[in-house]
Amino acid sequence: MPLPTSWSSPAFFDSLAAGLLIAGKRRGVDLACAIMATGLAVNWYATYGIQHSDIAAQPGLQRLLAFTALVLGSAPFVRRHLGR
Fold first, then answer.
1. Distance CA 35, CA 14 (A)
2. Which end of the chain is more exposed for a tag (fewer CB within 10 A), N or C?
3. Are 17 and 32 in contact (CB under 8 A)?
4. What is the pLDDT of residues 28-76, one digit of tens each?
5. Cβ(39)–Cβ(64) below 8 Å
6. φ/ψ bin of 24: left (φ > 0), alpha (ψ from -120 to 50), beta (otherwise)
């Protein structure tokens, strides 16, 4: 997936995940985890592969890593309380 597409697609997928979560669907948690994991991977690639930088020099990537860990870590607990 080209980088510009991966940075513009969350406008659709984030809204879809939010709608599923509001509706109480487990698929919303699964989609949110997939969004965060792919978003982190793309940003990590852009930082290391393109900019040749590291995480210490990128506070935005540090925050994204922390939020991804929060989403992925809390997903099993949230998922238990949602319907199919």
1. 8
2. C
3. yes
4. 999 999 999 999 998 888 888 887 888 888 888 899 999 999 999 999 9
5. yes
6. left
